[in-house]
């Protein structure tokens, strides 16, 4: 049996409060893929996190946040690449940056724009409401297309995905030009123990690296919102478990030299998926951070 309490059971009492401030843009198309943070939602999310982040939760590597933000202030396009375990990862990152990241952490939190899959918006009203607290660019993930077996439905959704993702890239460029920092979970999905593919980076992350000057790797130890073993597809049934949660920020990595070094090592004759190799190295950096090794 799962430990903890179901998300919808523990925080069902907040439904009326959430309904009073939600913007209700659940259905995504190419006209509403950029969703500005809803400031009325943030205090609600902060209360939930404060209840479940145990003493000892905080930031490791504050100096790396400062080094990253210095480059962003100097005009570099910044990207945050973070491990992904739960739907509290983005709220927790934002919360911990403001609480324990110093002035540079607060500035980074203010500039963050997260790349979010449509499921956060469309599958469950409570989860969608919580996501509204943060600025997001919504995309149609490639993993979602891969799961569609019916040919007619697949063709319909492929057309929809192209429109949504084309619009997403346009807004992504606008956010960069404004000096905002893009935040992505390179695995594209939450990690599930015993399912190693859920911790493999998706090859599309290489496109973000190509369009970015510097990335900040972030690992997470501890998890307050664990995927239900009984009903893993229902996000509202995730289990709330108070825990100590530590976000570790690695040294900023310059994207172009990082990619070039990998491509040079592979050589011109390499006929495998070069994008996947590059993203695999990103995941290796995150894994070393997670395990306390030199990234």
Helical stretch tally: 13
CATH superfamily: Glycerol-3-phosphate (1)-acyltransferase
**Beta fraction:** 5-15%
**Which CATH top level class fits?**
Alpha Beta
Instruction: Find the CATH topology.
Output: Glycerol-3-phosphate (1)-acyltransferase
Distance between the termini: 36 Å
The average pLDDT is 90
Low-confidence stretches: none
> How are helices and strands ordered from N to C?
EHHEHEHEHHEHHEHHEHEEEEEHH
Q: How many separate domains make up the residues?
A: 1
Oligomer: single chain
Main beta sheet: strand number and arrangement?
A: 9 strands, mixed
How large is the radius of gyration? 19 Å
Shape: globular
Name given to the CATH architecture: 3-Layer(aba) Sandwich
Q: Which secondary-structure class do the elements indicate? A: alpha/beta
Name the helicity range: 40-55%
Number of strands: 12
């Amino acid at each position: 049996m799962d430990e903890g309490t179901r998300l919808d059971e523990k925080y069902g009492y907040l439904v009326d409060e959430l309904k009073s401030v939600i913007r209700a843009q659940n259905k995504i198309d190419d006209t509403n893929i950029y969703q500005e943070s809803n400031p009325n939602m943030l205090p609600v999310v902060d209360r939930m996190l404060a209840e479940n982040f145990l003493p000892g939760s905080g930031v490791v590597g504050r100096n790396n946040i400062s080094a990253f933000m210095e480059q962003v202030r100097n005009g570099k396009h910044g990207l945050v690449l973070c491990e992904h375990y739960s739907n509290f990862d983005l709220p927790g990152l934002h919360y911990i940056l403001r609480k324990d990241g110093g002035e540079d952490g607060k500035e980074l939190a203010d500039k963050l724009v997260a790349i979010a899959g449509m499921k956060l918006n469309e599958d469950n009203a409570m989860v969608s409401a919580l996501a509204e607290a943060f600025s997001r660019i919504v995309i149609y993930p490639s993993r979602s297309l891969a799961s569609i077996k019916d040919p007619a439905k697949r063709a319909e959704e492929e057309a929809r995905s192209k429109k949504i993702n084309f619009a997403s890239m346009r807004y992504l460029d606008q956010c960069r030009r404004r000096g905002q920092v893009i935040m992505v979970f390179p695995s594209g999905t939450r990690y599930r123990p015993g399912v190693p593919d859920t911790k493999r980076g998706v090859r599309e992350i290489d496109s973000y690296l190509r369009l970015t000057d510097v990335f900040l790797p972030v690992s997470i130890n501890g998890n307050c919102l664990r995927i239900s073993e009984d009903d893993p597809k229902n996000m509202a049934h995730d289990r709330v478990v108070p825990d100590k949660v530590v976000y570790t920020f690695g040294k900023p990595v310059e994207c172009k030299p990082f990619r070039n070094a990998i491509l040079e090592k592979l050589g011109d004759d390499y006929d495998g998926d070069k994008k996947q190799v590059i993203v695999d190295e990103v995941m290796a950096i995150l894994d070393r951070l997670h395990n306390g090794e030199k990234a």
